[in-house]
Amino acid sequence: MAEDFNDNRTIQAQSSETISGAGAGVTPDTDYVRPAEVVDQDLYHGHSFITKWVFCQDAKVIGVQYFILATFTGIIGLILSWLMRLQLGFPGVASFMTAEHYYQFVTMHGMIMVVYFLTALFLGGFGNYLIPLMTGARDMVFPYVNMVSFWMFFIAVGVLLASFFVPGGPTGSGWTLYPPQAILEGTPGSGLGIILMLVSLVLFVIGFTMGGLNYLITVLQGRTRGMTLMRMPLTVWGIFTATVLAMLAFPALFVSAIMMTLDKLLGTSFFMPTILKAGEILEYGGGSPILFQHLFWFFGHPEVYIVALPAFGIVSDLISIHSRKNIFGYRMMVWAIVGIGALSFFVWAHHMYVSGMTPWFGFFFATTTLIIAVPTALKVYNWVLTLWRGNIRLNVVMLFCLGFIVTFVNGGITGIFLGNVSIDVPLSDTYFVVAHFHMVMGIAPLMVIMGAVYHWFPLVTGRLLSEKLGKWHFWFTFLGAYSIYFPMHYLGFVGVPRRYFEMYDSPYMASATGLNEFISTAAFIVGASQFILIYNIIKSLKTGKPAGKNPWKANSLEWLTPEVPPAHGNWGDKLPVVHRWPYDFNVPGAKEDYITQTTPPSEVLGAEVEKT
Amino acid sequence: MHAGIIFLAVIVGSVLFHIFTPWYWTDVASNWGSMDDTITLTFWIGGGVFVAVCLFMVYCVFKFSYKEGRKAEYKPEDKKLETILIIATTLGVAALLAPGLIVWNQFINVPKNAIHVDVMAWQWGWQYRLPGEDGKLGSTKVANINDSNPFGIILEDPNGKDDVLIQSDVLHIKNNRPVKILLRSVDVLHNWYVPQFRAKMDAVPGVVTYYWFEPNKIGEYEVLCAEYCGLGHYGMRGRVFVKDEQDYEKWLQEQETFSDLVAKQEEIEFSKTKLAKK
Question: In Å, how far is B76's CA from the nearest CA of chain A?
Answer without folding.
Answer: 5
